[in-house]
Amino acid sequence: MVYARPGGPPLGVLPTTQLDDPTWVPVVQRLPGWDRILLPSRPNRSTGWIYTQDGGLRGAYSTYRVRIELAARRITVFDAERRLGSWPVAVGAPGTPTPRGRTFLLASVIPGRQTYTPLFLALGTHSGTLDTFAGGPATVALHGWPDRASFGRDVSYGCVRVPPAALELLSRIPLGNPIMITD
């Protein structure tokens, strides 16, 4: 159960799986017996509280940091303070911009048929301009793209298109890992 505040009214239930992967969400604040978590729901950057005293929850810590700079059209991945790589990316077009702010890796989805990417890394954020996309709730993702000419440009529907080496590294980062998208 997710609550509006510690001991407050319930907001809803956080599913145990998201897109067939176990649900992992970042903790953004801790109080005795309660964790405030980032939710994969609209509006973007929504948070809620979960009660932690009854057990049943697993915690994990990741040293990875992922930063996407929209103006520079660049993604950089760190492990602790060590930079693992930095690549040019394609970001949202002016009419469908990539949402800014704090988010996280929600799920890793291998397409059921051959497509332009071997993997979609769904984020816990949604398009601010589209209600749906490709039959889903317009969840923003990191994914590959076959045309390298798109990197360094504002051309997507809000997703971040990354080169193969970046996608391979990002695929090893644990679900729930925070991602910061800045100007």
Automatic annotation (TrEMBL):
Protein name per the record: Lipoprotein-anchoring transpeptidase ErfK/SrfK
Pathway assigned to this chain's UniProt record: Cell wall biogenesis; peptidoglycan biosynthesis
PROSITE patterns according to UniProt: LD_TPASE
Gene3D superfamilies recorded: L,D-transpeptidase catalytic domain-like (2.40.440.10)
Matches recorded under InterPro entries: LD-transpeptidase, LD_TPept_cat_dom, Transpep_catalytic_dom
Species name: Streptosporangium lutulentum
Positions of the L,D-TPase catalytic domain: 64-182
Superkingdom, natural source: Bacteria
Keywords (A to Z) from UniProt: Cell shape, Cell wall biogenesis/degradation, Lipoprotein, Peptidoglycan synthesis, Transferase
Active site: H143, C159
